[in-house]
Write a structure and sequence with these properties.
The complex is a heterodimer of chains A (111) and B (114).
Chain A (H helix, E strand, L loop, with lengths): L3 E3 L2 E5 L4 E7 L6 E7 L5 E8 L4 E4 L2 E6 L4 E6 L8 E8 L6 E3 L3 E6 L1
Parallel strand pairs in A: 2-11
Antiparallel strand pairs in A: 1-3, 3-8, 4-5, 4-9, 6-7, 7-8, 9-10, 9-11
Chain B lengths: L4 E3 L2 E4 L5 E6 L6 E8 L3 E9 L2 E5 L6 E5 L5 E5 L8 E8 L9 E2 L3 E5 L1
Parallel strand pairs in B: 2-11
Antiparallel strand pairs in B: 1-3, 3-8, 4-5, 4-9, 5-6, 7-8, 9-10, 9-11
Classes of the chains: A mainly beta (111), B mainly beta (114).
């Protein structure tokens, strides 16, 4: 079946690293995505990883994929107050453009 | 390059009415997908259009419909509105329909049903 799970809340101090975790169930997923949603806005594509990769780094963002455990994580280095938002993990499906989203993790960054 | 544009940003309707939402994709993108976001159900896929054809459909009643025009702009329509249709409706576009096409989202249309 198709299901994506995330923890709901994460609180960190400014300057610390944040790690947001996600598990998915569809082993046929070939792409996994991270999106950011700020209040009153849509989803901003942060990064994505192909399932044959273990890691992808993009400036302050590092994505780790453990395909055996179907576990995905997003690490944000040097977290800033502007990183406070809801972060969604999503997996591709075999139905074209359909993505399955997790419930979102609300990241709170305290100064 | 302009992003995905959704209009209107806010809508207030009453039960039983119908509504049409519009989405203009990023220039050159030919695939448009629609999602409904609610606090209870999260983000749920409505449908996807590519080259004016519906390619995939989510598990929503027939009151929800859409179409895509030759310029790739898309509209979705909800008829006989119910209170439970109150949600943020998000549109996303990509170059083509497929697994390897990252989707870029607009800011959504917030629909409130009274």
């Amino acid at each position: 079946g198709e299901d994506v799970e995330q923890s709901l809340f994460l609180s960190v101090r400014e300057g610390d690293s944040s790690v947001i975790n996600c598990t998915y169930t569809d082993s046929s997923s070939t792409y996994l995505y991270w999106y950011k949603q700020e209040p009153g806005a849509g989803l901003q594509l942060l990064t994505y990883i192909f399932s044959n990769m273990d890691m992808k780094q993009d400036q302050r963002l590092t994505v780790l994929l453990n395909k055996k455990d179907k576990h995905l994580s997003l690490r944000i280095a040097d977290t800033q107050t502007g990183d406070s938002a809801i972060y969604f993990c999503a997996e591709s499906t075999n139905q074209g453009g359909k993505l399955i989203f997790g419930q979102g993790t609300e990241l709170s960054v305290k100064p | 390059k302009a992003g995905v544009t959704q209009t209107p940003r806010y809508l207030i309707k009453t039960r039983g009415q119908q509504v049409t939402l519009s989405c203009s994709p990023i220039s050159g993108h030919r695939s448009v997908s629609w999602y409904q976001q609610t606090p209870g159900q999260g983000l749920q896929f409505l449908f996807e259009y590519f080259s004016e054809t519906q390619r995939n459909k989510g598990n929503f009643p027939g009151r929800f419909s859409g179409r895509q025009f030759s310029n790739s702009r898309s509209e979705m329509n909800v008829s006989t509105l119910e209170l439970g249709d109150s949600a943020l409706y998000l549109c996303a576009s990509s170059w083509a329909s497929g697994l390897d096409q990252p989707q870029h989202f607009g800011d959504g249309t917030r629909l409130s049903i009274l």
